[in-house]
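To: structure desk
From: M.T.
Subject: fold request, one chain
Message: Could you run this one when you get a chance? Sequence is below, nothing fancy, just the single chain.
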Amino acid sequence: MNSAASDRPSGEALGVWGPAPRDDSAPPSAGEPAGDVPLHTLKILVAGGFGVGKTTLVGTVSEVRPLRTEEVLTDAGADVDDLRGVERKTTTTVAMDFGRLTFSGGIRLYLFGTPGQERFWFMWDRIAYGAVGAVVLVDTRRLATGFSSIDFFEQRRIPFVVAANRFDGARHYTVEEIRDAVDVDPHVPVLLCDVRRPEDAKGVLITLVEHAVQASEDQPLRRASP
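Reply: Done. Structure tokens follow.
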């Protein structure tokens, strides 16, 4: 993140939800009404495999009507889209989902949900540009669908958390079991959630922002290490 350390959002600042406080000292950005200018704006990605709940997460927490680019699945994609485990899914995101969430500490998140199918991965680099962190959603019934997202963010050194979305009827695993299965570094947060529940989805985003802040503070030390 580009802000100085003293200006960075803290975990305490993220604890209460609500509209950002009015800041009369700063002019509104284009398209922003006066009195609704956040102190910090952060771009967050919501990634993961096909059908893991990315669109649902964005829609659950967005304070504005979310932008969705869903299209109906057709027979034309049957040979390239892997529907195992999500046979009842009828639509898919073909570009991105977009939503917005504001914390009372003056922190505003812009949420970008990435398409999950392999044939749309070519868009990920553009969508990821400028992101401070990412949520990698995984489905415990199909953990392998999350590996590509994890590799993507590890290679680009974008801070991320892994959130296991609990689906009805699916076997429940512990955080330790999921961490071992996805094989992420010990400092990467792994959480359990139901993205249909606002408090669960918000909790995932709070954890991500705190993790991204910590990563930005540690980065100079890591570069200085031999």
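Reply (cont.): Residues 50 and 117 are 5 Å apart (CA to CA). Let me know if you need anything else for the meeting.
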